[in-house]
Amino acid sequence: MSRKQTTESKPTLAARRSFLKWVGAAAATLPFYKMLEDSVAHAAGGTLPLKFVGVGAFHCTSQLYYARRAGETDTSYDISYADCALKPFDDAATYGSSFKNNLTIFEGFDYGVGEIGPDGGALHVPMHGALGIFLTGSSATGGNGTEWNLQNESLDQFLATRYGGDTKFRSVEMCTEIDFAGLSSAWCISYASGGRPLARLTKPTEIWDKFFASLVVPDDPAARAAAERRRMIGGSVLDFVTGDLQRLNARLAGTEKQKLDQHLTVIRGLEKRLADLGTTGPACVAPTRHAESGNPNPADNYVVSNGPNGGEPYFNKLADFQIELLAQILICDLTRFATIVLPGTAGPGTTPAMTNVLDGTGQELAATGTDRLIPNNFHDSIAHKSGSATVDVQRAVATMNRWYFGKVARLMQRLKDASLLDSTVILVGNEGGHGAGHSTMNVPILLCGGANGALKLGRRVVAPGRTAQVGDAPTGAARTSHNPILAAVANAFGANVSSYGTCADARMTAAVSGLV
Amino acid sequence: MRRPHRLSAILLCALGGAACTGTILDPGQGGPGGGGPNAQAVSWLPARIRRLSNRELDNSVAALLGTTTKASAAFAPDTRQSGYTINAEQRVDGTLGDQIAAAADALATEAVTARLASLVPCDQAAASCPRTFVETFAARAFRRPVTAVEADALMTVFTTAHSGGTFADGVQAVISATLQSPSFLYTTELGREGATPDARGLVELAPHEVASALSYFVTGGPPDAALLDAAAKDELRTPAQRETQMRRLLATPAARVQIARFVKEWLGLDMIDHLDRTGGAASFSSLRPTFVAETDAFVEEVMFRGDASLAALLGADYTMANSTLGAYYGVAAGASTSDWARASLASTPRRGLLSQASFLSVYAAVDASSPVKRGVTILRRLLCQDIPFPSGEVAMKAMMVPPKDAAKTTRERFTIHSTDPACAGCHSRIDPIGFAFEEFDQMGKYRVTENGVTVDSTGSLVGTDVDGAFRDAGELAGRLASSEQVRRCFARNALRFSTAQTSSSLEEAFLASWQALPATTQSNLIEVLVAYAKSDLFVNRKVN
C-alpha cells in the first residue's frame, strides 16, 4: 500500500517499511493497523505524520503591542508583558507551558496578491473580502464588496489532497459563527480547487456526531446487528450515488467536470468512513458532547443561530467547544488537516458577562471572554478607530488579539499534552493588518507548533524588503507578499514547490528559500 | 429559427482621469475608446450543470415527498454570485455532503412513516411493485424518464434493504439514495445525450431540461405534471409554447415568492434576518417581520397587479402597509395587522423600495444611519458603478468612523469626506446619495431632526445620466427611476438571476437584445423574463 511521505525521519520510515513487511499487505488493511504502525514508527524514529491547522481571525492587530520593543531583535524579545497581543504564547500559568519557542511571528507581510488583477493591472481586494487570500495566496478575478472570486485551492486542501488519504476524514472545516452572509472570501479560509469556498461545520453537536459518534461501539448484539445492517444499506445507497455521479460526469469537461470530481471525492469519503471500523490514535478519547441545552453545567448551554452578530452572546463558549473538539479530532488522528475560523465580532449583548462599567466616553464595557474589559460594540467603537493614537484604543485591539491567540494557545496546550505539538503546523492569519485603515498590509500572521524540525520557530521574521520598527509596522518596500509563507509550509510537508498561489505577477507567489 | 439581435461587442471603458477609478460596467456611456468595433461577439451560456440552491432543494423535496419539513434547515448556506443564491458555482463539499446524507436519511424515514401509501402507487404484495415504485419515483425525482440502467441500480438498493427487512425499508433506502443523487441535486443543461453541436458550436437543451429550466426559473421549484407532459410530447420547442408555460407558471403563488426573492437578493435585503439595530422605540426584532412583509407585499403588488416596471419599484408613491406599518410611517393603512392594503405615501418623502424600512435598516450602522452604505449600495446595485474601497495611505485615515457627537447630525459628522481631497474623489459621488436618506434613521423611521438639528437631505447627483439637484430621498428615487443607466443595470441583474451566472459578455449581448425590444416590453420586468424564456439564449448552450 502506498503512503504519502510527510517528511518523516529515515529511522521512522525504515521502521514503517519493516513493520509493513512484517504484518503483510493484507493486514495493512486492518482498521487498527495504522494505530499500531504509528506507535512502532514513533518509538523507532520519534516523528509522527505532519498535521496542519489554519486559523482565521479578525480585527487585525495593534502594531504597538505586536511589534518588537526597544532593544529587541529577531531572536530576542519579550512577549509576556501584560498588554502584549502575543502574551498567550508565553503564559505558562494559563496554558501549561510557554510556547515562545514554538512560535514564529511574521512582520511586514502584505496580501500583495490582493492588489493585482488577472491581467496584471490593479485590482484591490479590500480587507473585508481578503480573509480568503490568507490560505489561498490568490489574486481575485473580480468581485465587489466582500465577495471576491479566488482562483486556487487553499493550503489546507492542497496538503489534504496529497497527504490526507490515510485518515478517516480527509480534512475538517470549522467555523464558530453561522454563515449568514453565505460562503465568501470575507468569511472563508478553506477553498477547493478553482477557488471555491468550502462550507464549514458550525454546531458543536454536528461536529461531535460526525467525528465521534461512530467511535462509540454499542454493547448489545441487537444494536450491533442494527448498526451493521445500516452500514450495509448505506453502502448500497452510496454505490448508487457513485454510479449516478460517474454517469453524469462522463458527459462533462473542464470546470463542469471539476464540480462532480469534487462531489465524487466527497462520496468516496463517506464510503470510506462507512467501511472503516474506526481507527484512532492511541490517546483517543471521545470528548463530551455538549448539546445546546440540558448540560450538567448550565453555563455550557448555548445557542447556535443566525441571529445578529452571528451567535452573540455565546461566541466565547462556542469557540472553546470547537477548539476542544478540534484538539480531540487531531489527537484521535481522525484527520490531519483542519481549518477553523473564529468569531468575527464582539457585538452588543454579552450576557452573562456584562458589566456596569462605562469607559470615559460613556461606552459600556463588557467582559466577553477577554482578559480585560473592552467596549461592548467592539467593531464600531474600537476596530474602526484603531488608527487612533489613544493608548486605550490600542490596548483594546491587543486585548481582542489575545482572545484569538488564547484559543490557539489552548489548542497548543492540548496537542503538547498529547505529544503532537511538534508535528502540527498551525498557521494563524487575519482579514487584514490595520483595522481602521481597512488595510491588507502588515497582516499579523503566526506560525506555531512544529513540522518535525523542518521549520524554524521561536523568532520574528520580517518580510524581505522591509525593515523592522519598534512599536510599529516594518517600513520599506511598497508592497510585499505573504505567499512565501504558504510555500514554506507546503515544502515542510515535502511538497517541493517553487511557488504557492495565483497571481499575474509571478514574483508575488514565488517561494523564498530559507524564509522560515 | 430567429436569433437574438447581434450587435458589435462594446468595449468597457474606465472612468477617465478622476481620483475615483472604478469601472462603469455599462458601456453605453461612451467615453474614450468606446464604441470601437470588435468581432461579432454573441455570447451564449456554456453547457453546464447547476447545483440547486438550498431553497430550490427545499421546494424540490417538498414537491417530491409531500413533506413540510425544510430539507436544508441544517445545511451550510449557499455560495452567492453577485448576491444571488441561484448560480452555477455552487458545489457539494465535504461538509455539505454529510449534511445532505443526514437530511436524506431523515426525510426518507419521515416519508415512509407518514406517507408510504401515497408514495407507492401499487400493491406492495405484487411482485412488480418494487420496480414500478422505483421507476415512477425516480422519474419524478430526476425530473425526466429514467433509463433501465438507473432503474436496475435503484432496484439493487431496494433489494438490499428489503431483504431481512420490510417493503418500507426498501422504499426508504431508495428515497435516501435518490435524494443524494446528482440527478436530483443538480439540473443539467447539456442537451440530449449524444447530440452533436451545430455550426455555431451549440446544442439545444433536451425537452426535459427546458421543463426544469422554465420551472426553476419562475417558481424556484421542479416542473409540475403539465410541464413534464409538455416535455414528453416535445411541446416546449417553440417560443410560443414556452411562453404559454411561462405565463401559466407566473400565475402561481410560487412565482410571487420567486420574483420577490430576486428583488431582495438584488438589493441585499435578505440580510435583514441576520442584523440587529438599536435606538428605536420598539425592538428591531419585533418590527423586522413587518418590514419584511411590506417589501414582499409591495413587490407582489407592483409585479403582478401593476405594470411590473422598475419605475414603479423605485418611484411608487404608495406602499403596502398593515396597521403596524401604517402607524410606523404615519400613513393611512390596512385596518389590522393582517390587513395589507395600498397606503399612499404622497404626504411623505418616501417613494418606492429605497424608502422602505427594510432597505433603510439593512444599510445602516447598528445604532445610526449610514450614508456611505446607502450611497455605495445604490451606486453598485442600481447604477452598476464599481466603487473601490479606499486603499493604502488613504485607507489608513479613511475608515475611521467619525465619532458620535451629541450636537451634530450624521451629515455634519461626515463633512471631512468633502473637505479632504483624498476622500472627495469618491465620496462626492457616494455621500450626496446617502445624505438624501438622512430623514430616515437606522430603523427606517422618519425624523425631522437629529440631535436637535434639522436634517438636511438635499443634494446633487453626479456621474449619472440623471444628474442634478434633489431635495430628498423621494425626489432622488424618482430621478433614479427615470434613469436609463439604472434600467440597464436592473436588466443586467435580471439576467444574472435568470441565467444563474455573472458574465459581462453575456450581459452585453443581452442588453443589446433587450434594447431592441418595444418600449412597453422593455420596461416591464415580467415581460422581459418572458422574452428571455422565448429567446435562443434560453434554449441553446455552447459546447467547448
List keywords for this structure.
heterodimer; A: 516 residues; seven-stranded mixed sheet; three-stranded antiparallel sheet; 16 strands; 11% strand; B: 544 residues; mainly alpha; 2 domains; two-stranded antiparallel ribbon; 25 helices; disordered N terminus
In short:
Chain A has 516 residues and is of the alpha/beta class.
Most extensive chain contact? A-B, 76 and 74 residues
* Rg of Cα set of chain A: 23 Å
How do the SSEs of chain A run, as a string of H and E? HHEHHEHEEHEEEHHHHEEEEHHEEEEEHH
What shape does the CA trace of chain A take?
globular
- Percentage of residues assigned to helices of chain B: 40-55%
Which structural class is indicated by helix and strand composition of chain B?
Answer: mainly alpha
Low-confidence stretches of chain A: 1-7, 22-36, 346-354
Distance between the termini of chain B: 23 Å
- Tally the helices of chain A: 14
DSSP strand (E) fraction of chain A?
5-15%
Radius of gyration of chain B: 26 Å
**How would you characterize the largest beta sheet of chain A?**
7 strands, mixed
Can you offer a commentary on this structure?
The complex is a heterodimer of chains A (516) and B (544). The radius of gyration of chain A is 23 Å and the shape is globular. By secondary structure, chain A is of the alpha/beta class. Chain A is 33% helix and 11% strand. Chain A is built from 14 helices and 16 strands. Chain B has 544 residues and is mainly alpha-helical. Chain B has two domains: 9-189, no CATH class; 260-481, no CATH class. In chain B, 50% of the residues lie in helices and 7% in strands. Chain B contains 25 helices and twelve strands. Chain B has a two-stranded antiparallel ribbon with strand order 1-2. Chain B has a two-stranded antiparallel ribbon with strand order 3-4. In chain B, helix 3 (129-142) crosses helix 4 and helix 9 (239-250) runs antiparallel to helix 24. Residues 1-19 and 21-41 of chain B have low confidence and may be disordered. The chains are: A alpha/beta (516), B mainly alpha (544). The interface between A and B is large, with 76 and 74 residues.
